[in-house]
Amino acid sequence: KRKLGILISGRGSNMMALAGAARADGSPYEVALVASDKPDAPGLAWAQDQGIATFALSPKGMAKADYEARIDAALRDAGVEAIALAGYMRLLTNAFVARWRSRIVNIHPSLLPKYKGLDTHARAIEAGDTHAGCSVHVVTEELDGGEVLGQAQVAILPGDTADSLADRVLTEEHKLYPRIVAEWLSK
Ligand code: GAR
């Protein structure tokens, strides 16, 4: 099985979906490490309870290069071969991306190339879009800009708020991400 590392910053529901799918028969990957830039991320405690190896390091007061070198070392020590970002709300440096070239994917809550960055659901509603969704893409130096590996759509309903739309998109994220990661790591 391929060893997957997952980076999170908070709730970690996409990480939980990936970890759940990894336990199913025939999964091409296993979760070798869950790492967080927020030592108090709820997802980290969940992963620990599941017996998954975890690593937490706050970048506060550290040079970014030093912080990332520590994350990189933790991933390598765990034997990680590929990385899934799951609500990891920190930009990776170009050096880190280059070191893991074509081996990092991210899930982003919009139908890329629309709405890169933050506040995706509010922006989709504001624009009067009929659909929103989520995308799994390869991570490159360009924010939310790498090759899209898969997407899922939901209709934007009358009366939707950013929160209600986010809830429905999240349900799709939890199905899309494990499926695309399994396909990606089966190649
Ligand atoms: C998810 O909706 C994910 O798509 C989004 O943050 C949420 C994390 O939830 N990611 C981004 O906005 C990346 N820029 P989770 O921690 O429960 O997986």
From TrEMBL:
Keywords: Purine biosynthesis, Transferase. GO terms for molecular function: phosphoribosylglycinamide formyltransferase activity. The active site is at 108 (proton donor). Transmembrane segments: none annotated. The record marks 144 as: Raises pKa of active site His. Residues 3-180 form the Formyl transferase N-terminal domain. Pfam families: Formyl_trans_N (PF00551). It is an enzyme of class 2 (transferase). Its EC number is 2.1.2.2. CDD domains: FMT_core_GART. (6R)-10-formyltetrahydrofolate binds at residues 64, 89-92, 106. It comes from the Bacteria. SUPFAM superfamilies: Formyltransferase (SSF53328). Pathway: Purine metabolism; IMP biosynthesis via de novo pathway; N(2)-formyl-N(1)-(5-phospho-D-ribosyl)glycinamide from N(1)-(5-phospho-D-ribosyl)glycinamide (10-formyl THF route): step 1/1. The keyword Transferase applies. Belongs to the GART family. Catalyzes the transfer of a formyl group from 10-formyltetrahydrofolate to 5-phospho-ribosyl-glycinamide (GAR), producing 5-phospho-ribosyl-N-formylglycinamide (FGAR) and tetrahydrofolate. This is Phosphoribosylglycinamide formyltransferase. It comes from Sphingomonas tagetis. The lineage of its organism: Bacteria, Pseudomonadati, Pseudomonadota, Alphaproteobacteria, Sphingomonadales.
